Structures are given as C-alpha cells and as structure tokens.
Prior knowledge:
Shape: elongated
Number of helices: 8
Strand content: under 5%
Structural class: mainly alpha
Helix content: over 70%
Distance between the termini: 8 Å
Number of strands: 0
Order of helices and strands: HHHHHHHH
Amino acid sequence: MNATTAALQILIALAFLSIPLVRSRYGARAQASVEAELARQGVRTTVMAENGMRVDAGGHETWAPVGIASALTLSAVVTFAGLGWSGTLAWIVQPLVLLVNCVILYSNLTAVPSVTAAFAKSGDPELARIDVKSMLGAAERGFPRWVMPYLQNLRHVVVFAGSLAVLALLAAN
C-alpha cells in the first residue's frame, strides 16, 4: 500500500508539472497569438503585460503547480521512507490537492465569464472592451492541438482518480 500510495502521488505530481512545462515550451507562441488577437480587436497589444497577465510559464502558472508537485513529492518520499507520520502527511496533502484541482477545473470551465468580469472591474476601459472569448480562443490556438483538451483532461483524470485512489488506500490502512 505504501509504495502504491507514493507512486500515485508521484504520478499526480508529474501531472501538475505538465502545466509549467507546456507553458514554458509553447507559451510564447500562445502569447503572440493573444497579441495578434488583441491587435485585430484594436486593443494595444501590451495591455495584458501592463496588467500582469500572461499565458506563458510565469507567475502563478509556475509557482502553484511546482509547489503542489513539491508537496506531493515530499509526501511520497516520506511514504517511501516508511516514516510513521507518512499517513498523516498524505491525509493533509491529498485532500488539499483534490480541492485545488476542483478550483482549477472550475476556473477552466468559467474562464470567459470570470475574465470578462475581472476586465470590466479593472477600471481600464481598454481591458473592458476586449472580446475575452476570442482572446482566450487565440491563446488556446497558440498551444498544440493535443494540449487542450487532451492533455488538460488527462491531467484532471490523473489528479482526480489518483487522489481518490490515494485517499481510498489511506482509509483502508
């Protein structure tokens, strides 16, 4: 059970690391696609950067998944080492990972209305007039076709199924 739990946590950590890896590799292309869409809409192409928004591997798109992967890896290492508190650590980490992934999924599903609302509240009239659906579509087209929805959905399946399996293994122990 311990090796299985740890292996699942490593697999889930790798799923989270796919986010900054893909954004690092293809983010510049996606950013260029967003800027071209903004230009098409007659919006200055620097408006996103001026407001701290990016589609590459910067900011929370890197530190959040790397932090989650680190917590999962720590829990897996403690489990592999057979330390007595490994179960307690896994009971803390795994539900948090499950909850965070629920937030990520919700954010993915509500991206257009939430970004539209954030732009409207920004006080920047240029942000407020952006066609967010077209802008996010341009960002998505900047990544290879296998990223969205295939990699994104696979990552969610691995995280949700793996987390539930870890929790079931912990409960059975």
